[in-house]
Amino acid sequence: xxxxxxxxxxxxxxxxxxxxxxxxxxxxxxxxxxxxxxxxxxxxxxxxxxxxxxxxxxxxxxxxxxxxxxxxxxxxxxxxxxxxxxxxxxxxxxxxxxxxxxxxxxxxxxxxxxxxxxxxxxxxxxxxxxxxxxxxxxxxxxxxxxxxxxxxxxxxxxxxxxxxxxxxxxxxxxxxxxxxxxxxxxxxxxxxxxxxxxxxxxxxxxxxxxxxxxxxxxxxxxxxxxxxxxxxxxxxxxxxxxxxxxxxxxxxxxxxxxxxxxxxxxxxxxxxxxxxxxxxxxxxxxxxxxxxxxxxxxxxxxxxxxxxxxxxxxxxxxxxxxxxxxxxxxxxxxx
Length: 335
Hints:
Elements: E1 3-9, H1 14-18, H2 24-33, E2 38-41, H3 43-46, H4 55-68, E3 71-77, H5 91-107, E4 112-115, H6 124-134, E5 137-142, H7 151-163, E6 168-173, H8 183-191, H9 196-207, H10 212-218, H11 225-230, H12 234-239, E7 261-268, E8 271-272, E9 275-276, H13 281-290, E10 294-301, H14 315-334
Parallel strand pairs: 1-2, 1-10, 2-3, 3-4, 4-5, 5-6, 6-7, 7-10
Antiparallel strand pairs: 8-9
Helix pairs in contact: 2-4, 5-6, 13-14
């Protein structure tokens, strides 16, 4: 029997936080009121001093958890290897940074860390003793344009399987399950000057069950004639590679990875009365139920970055709508 739980990545409400319409405590209260069971946080976005948090900051965090009853599910971590202008970080420096993130998660009562896509496989073995000591699992995000066919992702998965530890796994971002190209992206980018023909071509790929990511690889990264005909300007040519990040995998791609999956990002571009415009949330929830998934599905709203000029930000409305829809799907699926 599955135990699928709701969660919200506070990344979804970053504009509310950045522009001081809501502080962290208000955001935590909001997601709880809208039905979230858990919370996902980017510590370096919303916790001052991360990863070297003060005792006061840690105490405030635990107070907010107690006030809301939210479960602290996962911390999102980035490995910035380009801190210096003249060199990248050494392996030792990378490991030391990630050890601090593991220790921080422990202080926050969080037992799972998401590594942003492309964190290298060689961090796994040096970090394992710290994962065990602090009871914190590390998991690589499998993200659109950086999914299962990318060498860096393959290398991490190979090493993950080799160590076969409960402290190493994967986070799946549902941007790899787009069934249609997000129309909010289309509206935003055509407003910026991208030709409609580019999106018309991409729509034909989704209609036949493909996507631009797959098409480019099948053509050895050369633009097929239909795409060349769709490109109307140099602006179009510069923009096209950015459309690589909306993939159309079948849910069955997860079959072999289910034992390693620790968490899901339910990517959100645009909620409609019938669900997310570009993704089949209900179908994926049914798949997870059928595979006895016991974990969280986290709202991750990214439609905010495609808000048209002069239009209001819809972060709160979109997060609330997605939570409501997922809860209704789970009620139907799980009973």
